[in-house]
User: Fold this.
Amino acid sequence: MEGPLSVVLKMSHPTEMMISVVIGIGFGFVLERAGFGRADRLAANFYGRDFRVLRVMFTAIVTAMLGLYVLDLLAILPLSSIGILDTYLLPQIVGGLLLGVGFIVGGYCPGTSVVAAVSGKIDAVLFMLGIAFGSAVFTFGYDTLAPLANAGARGRVLLHDFFHVNSGIVVFAVSLFAVGAFWAVGRIEQLVRARTSARASEHQDEEATEARGAAGLAREGSLP
Amino acid sequence: MNENRPLWNPYAAGVALGLVLLASFVLTGRGLGASGTFKHVEAAVIHAVEPTWAEENQNIASFFSDPQRSSLNDWIVWLTIGSAVGGAMAVFTGKRFKVETVRGPRARIENRWILAVVGGAISGFAAQLARGCTSGQALTGGAQLSLGSWVFMFAVFGGAYGMAWFVRRQWI
Assistant:
């Protein structure tokens, strides 16, 4: 076997679409079980309270990357046989920044909003309507936006091509980066937790002092 | 009865998500995604209203090149239908389904609704500009080690962290 099964087996369009449905079922199921069906849990990632999103995402990337590069090495699934995403630096930077803004403002990203919507979240349904609207705005403005959308087109650039190193080095570096990130976010969570609980107990102390003061006044008032 | 099934450990969920993505590469040569479906739906609506305009718009014309096949009969649309089914299976078996508006303790519900639409609109525009979203670019291209996808991923985190302070009343 060399290449994706759909190509090797010359699958018909309906068969391939059915496979896409099955893959989608797996995708949606895992996203829900990962906890991505709630905006507050997704947003917690950006306030240093719960880095679940980052942990799941980096683990998934490393897992799929290791599988992909091993299959490439074994010539079972050569990288050249799958759809590698092309690089367009400027639109990917601007689009990425905007998608991050949309994420924290709206509470979801496109994939998680689908799972949240079927979980009964009204905000996710509204977010989905917003995506369709924003997407249509892009289509209507395409003539004006095309130069930006196609700026800095570099075609297929993989990280090891860019840095002129062996792909194994990048695979190792990315794995190491993920482990480092897991350690770092664990530390950040501890710091944020310590700070918020310190603030909460300070608040409690103030309330307690006020309560004591009020109780004292009441006692004084009750003296003959 | 009200006992929810707990969420998976994040690392275990990550391995599972990575295996789904890998299976997708092996089976079809494609990754995962979501925003493409919204583009197809939006394009189909425009096409229903103004077929000629849609067929001449450079952004969506390719969807209508095959008159024998509906523009919605595309792998990404089927994948999203599957995602909705899979998400529903997980939420019902996990006893987590609940009709509600998710928001922080200080957030007003009307503001949350408005910002959900606004955030969605920004994301829909952004995903088209970047040719993908968190799943189609960051996850899929990240695992492929595509340069642009990694740049995109850091930009997403940068945009979200940069904006987080301004909308903190929505969430914390």
